[in-house]
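Hi team,

Filling in the usual template for the complex we talked about on Friday. All components are listed, including any nucleic acid strands or ligand strings, so the model treats them as one assembly.

SUBMITTER: L.P.
PURPOSE: interface mapping
COMPONENTS: two
RESIDUES: 655
SEQUENCES:
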Amino acid sequence: MSAPREQMLRRLGRQLAAEQDAQLAGSEELATRAATRAVAAHVAARSAGSSLATAAQSGPSRTLLTVGALAAAVCISALWLHTLPLQVAVTGGAPLSVDQTAGSPDREVELSFSDRSEIALARAARLRLLALTRKGATLRLEAGSARVHITPDRGGDFTLHAGGFAVHVTGTRFVIDYQARDEVLSVRMLEGSVLVTGCALTTPQVLSVGQPFRASCSDRSRPQGISKSPVEVAHAPSLGTESRVPPQPPTREPDVAPARAEHRPHTRPVSPQEHLEPAVSSSAGVQPSASKRGWQQLARAGKFKAAYRLGRRAQLASLPVDEALLLGDAARLSGETRAARHIYERVRSLHPGSDAAAAAAFACGRLQFDQRAAYSDAARWFELYLREREAGPLAREARGRLVEALVKSGQHAAATRAAQTYLSTYPTGPHAAFARRVLQTE
Amino acid sequence: MNRVGASAVANVVSPASAAVFQAPAGDADRALVEALRAGETRAGEALFAAYAPYVRKVVTRVLGPDAETLDLVQDVFVIALESLHKLQNPGALRPWLAQIAVFQARGCIRRRKQWSIVRLFAPEKLPEPRIAHADFEGSEALVATYRLLSTLGADERIAFALRFIEGMELSDVAHACGVSLATIKRRLARAESRFVTLARREPALVDWIGGEP
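RESULT (copied from the run log):
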């Protein structure tokens, strides 16, 4: 390795180490507390063994034997707790045991796992718990539809069987529907990706956002696979329109249009290659290359993964702000959460105080909530949006999401205040029922 | 109680605090090991208090922000306490713990890669790597670095992290990885070459590494 290169890497390494050390210092106490109990119990158990041996040599000692027995029990308990499987409860708090089936013919039923994963069963859906492990569960969707949210970044390992299919999940959100009579499975990804196997699938199918899936075990005469009908693709969620109500066709965010006007005209150096491309209508007044023209079209068509793959190297400072947001959406909806966060933060720093900056704050809140389960951070981002755009186009959604985030992060007093504010402003909004439940439990 | 055990116990500040060996050095480590082997309960807590931050740092250097870090730190100390009889040089407690930490982190990396192969995910279709603890945020450079490191083999990744991020000397990196100096140099050369090639395409790292050659 050359000396200059080594020096360069060492400089980078020192910077990264300093940043990591600052983060570790902030959470040292928690880490120490969490691990000390188990280690101390283990050490105590070993000491108890020594104490017992000493007592046997020197004569009976009731106190030492009692301490030793207690220490051993603590050690065994600590190790046992570490290996316990997840726990799951249905709406109302009743635990669900293995081989039991959850569901109701006349209402929705929610399953809550101890790792904060959740499954919401539609009316008349039935879900059977087959197994629970430390990191996940095996379930069978016997009939109906369920919205699944598996907490990401926790090493989750869930499998949902539906007929002859199996959906393997590590951390994501999706809607699954199984029609038992026709043996038809449908999967619509909301975030992340899953792997589907079974029936006539000759190879496992990886499903990501923008790739709706519909297949049947009963029809084995033709290959099964991913359905890419234009209608289903057009229903892929976009920024600001996704909510807990049935998805609407994607629309352009109204706050982005003013941002587009704010930053027109936008100029940047045009490469010789771009001069050779056919002229393309663009709000920026420049002529992007074919590949850059392509990623925007792909993103607007709901092909987020392909769009992000093409557009990921675009210079954010050179993009019109609405396209920068679009690229952030493409990253987020294709599961590239880190890249999405980076893009949104850059939008905020490049266009401070703009509608787009506020929209980016809202998007960061969604990222933290939906894909990282970082609810405190999500709440801060939603509050930031509301500070910047109290009456903005995303205000209703931000207020509703804020209530959810505050509840999930345990900030009950703040959640109550947020729920009251939401109901006074949006008494019939999508989060109204949730806000009322929050007030009823306080 | 022998003289060494007595001195180790006498260094305990108070029952409420096990923060004893603030600047671990050979003598203090030897005393601590002796106290552990003698079965002193407070010595176990002192070991943890003295070295848990360091072990956690080593694991974090290798894995980056990770939800399993605390579990791995716990495993390191359980293994250390169980295998204390194998420690031949009590004065080298710190590098010994680093070696156990590296081994545990390596096992974690390999388990994840094996699982991803079993799942038949193509690399480009993998879900977002599980690198974020819920409260961890980092600069783009930090995030990009660990994203690139996750594409390296486990051995190269570990060597790179210990050498350039933790700043270990080559001999210490070799010891932590349990290999010869020549082997660690080869691993570092491969890691550096691959990392620099990838980093030149990363907006967050190009200022450090330099653009496309």
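MY TAKE: Chain A has a mean pLDDT of 72. The radius of gyration of chain A is 27 Å.

Thanks, L.
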